[in-house]
Fold this sequence. Notes:
The chain is of the alpha/beta class. It is 36% helix and 20% strand. The chain has nine helices and seven strands. The chain has helices at residues 18-35, 62-72, 78-82, 90-96, 162-171, 200-212, 226-232, 250-269, 274-294, and strands at residues 52-56, 104-109, 125-129, 144-150, 172-192, 236-241, 298-310. It has a seven-stranded mixed sheet with strand order 3-2-1-4-5-7-6, sandwiched between helices. Helix 1 (18-35) packs antiparallel against helix 8 (250-269) and helix 6 runs antiparallel to helix 9 (274-294). The longest helix has 21 residues, at 274-294. It starts with 17 loop residues before the first helix and ends with a strand.
Amino acid sequence: xxxxxxxxxxxxxxxxxxxxxxxxxxxxxxxxxxxxxxxxxxxxxxxxxxxxxxxxxxxxxxxxxxxxxxxxxxxxxxxxxxxxxxxxxxxxxxxxxxxxxxxxxxxxxxxxxxxxxxxxxxxxxxxxxxxxxxxxxxxxxxxxxxxxxxxxxxxxxxxxxxxxxxxxxxxxxxxxxxxxxxxxxxxxxxxxxxxxxxxxxxxxxxxxxxxxxxxxxxxxxxxxxxxxxxxxxxxxxxxxxxxxxxxxxxxxxxxxxxxxxxxxxxxxxxxxxxxxxxxxxxxxxxxxxxxxxxxxxxxxxxxxxxxxxxxxx
Length: 313
């Protein structure tokens, strides 16, 4: 089966072959290079025994493409879109290399249909079904030293992260840490270095993507309010980290963003409706022109941010 072949029963088949996998690995590398770490430096796990870590929405940055796909396909839920994607949990795999051997890492997601085989992951990594928007099972409460979330912005229901915060805090041991890595997509604007470079096609591309989302009522402004929300939910020692993307890295972030847009355009082009296929063709054409601008210094990027808090003893 090729990476783009239709599967019986799927509404659409999203790319889940080597191109999509490579894009997701690139995205993880960009985050790691941007931050300089997987776990915030204020969190010390190496001195602890029998460390337990939970990763919520455990795909390797999958939500970035979901941000694009939900914008382009507002009629599909995040659950429908995740069912088409390979779940490789690269953050967990990467972190497992840094922690002492007794550490145990659990990956949780709303779809386990594409998790890697046990032979391809470390013995101390396991995967489980969990919808973080619903109450946490009692046997998971108070079990983890660190709970990690990344790029869940469009998986949050009714633009209210409160229920998710309540649930993931319940996973923490007393004194355990919550780390939430998120993208401020509401701040996504075209940028250019040097400022004389044209942004015409980048602006056109971003306007087209946003026009697909015009019928949705969701607001993503809560992302910038996460530090206050952490404190409001009782977390201590809250820290907020959002360094700007280095100019030397903008081209790579833009490449990754365009790869995601391209996956969305191919999804449209496989539609049975001519109107949707035309949208896909228009999107793909703009991607090519925006890419030409990017080679001269144009970029479209969201602002990565990290918020950390500690549960009281």
